[in-house]
Structures are given as structure tokens and as C-alpha cells.
Amino acid sequence: MKIDKASYRNRGGLIQRVTTAYKRFRYFTATGTDLVVKRSAEFRMVKHAVLKVGSGVTIQDEAFFQLTMPEPKVFIGDNTVIGRRSIITAKNRISIGNDVLIGSDVQIIDHGHGMRRDTPIRIQKAEIGFIEIGNDVWIGAGAKILMNVRIGNGAVIGANSVVLTDIPEYAIAVGAPARVVKYRE
User: End-to-end distance of the chain based on CA atoms, in angstroms?
Assistant: First the structure.
């Protein structure tokens, strides 16, 4: 039996369109046009969670979104790509700008755990913050963006970096903790 490559590609495209349509309806509060959500992308969300994305957004395979109590909101701008196996976890607010490239295995988390000495860690409440990522940002594979951080427009975060403090516009930051090593020309 001869396989028609064009019809095979069309069938794959149909499956992708149906997958995106289902996930758009099921999980997103608002979307622009040309959203692509891969089949293995996963969403765990409380009922009142807000997940808004702009046009031209792609969410790659095995990306994981966890929007949990108390008031989770995630905003993603136009033409942004969330890489394979990346994790976005929000209890409050994560904002990601336009034209952002997020590599594979990146973690973006707007909260941490309490660490007071007088109470066992396992029973302490979460410390809740925010994350703001500007436009035209590139976040390299394996990077971690932790709570209460602003990453300026045009910044580059190196692979496997751990961002604990604000990164200025057009800065290139690398390391754990991430430090600015130069600026984009």
C-alpha cells in the first residue's frame, strides 16, 4: 500500500488543530490567533485561574502549567514560545512579554516555601510573589526564574542560570545565581 505523504501531513495537522482547539476551550481564559498547544502539554489549574495568551504563541511538548491557590494569573504576549518540558507555576502572577523564547526545561515559579526556624518547613505556608519578563527576552535551556524577579526587555538568560534578582534591559546574565556579564550590542 502506497502512503500519500501529503494526506499524512494533513492528518497530523488536523490532529494538532483539534488538540489546540480542545485545550484552548478547556484551559485558556483568552487567546489570540494562531495558538499552538502540543498534545503532551499539561495544565493543572484551579477553577478561577486566569491564563491569557496573545497571538502566535506556541506551547511545546510536555510543557507543564500549574496555576494554584490563591489567585493565579499567567499572561503571555504575542509570538512567544514555551519550550519542551518547561514548567510555569503560579500562585499569584506571572507576566511574559511579546517575542520571548523560553528554552526547554525552564522553570518559572512565582512563589517559594517558608523557611523560619521556629516551625517545621513542611507545615509553613508558601511565600507568594510575582514574575515579570519583558519583551524580546531569550531564556536558555534549564534556567530557573524564581519569585519577585523582573527581567527587562531584550535580556538574555544563559542556560542553567538561576535568576534570583532583577535583570536589566538588554543584559546577558549567566550563572547560579545569575549575574550580568555584558549587554547586547
Answer: 56
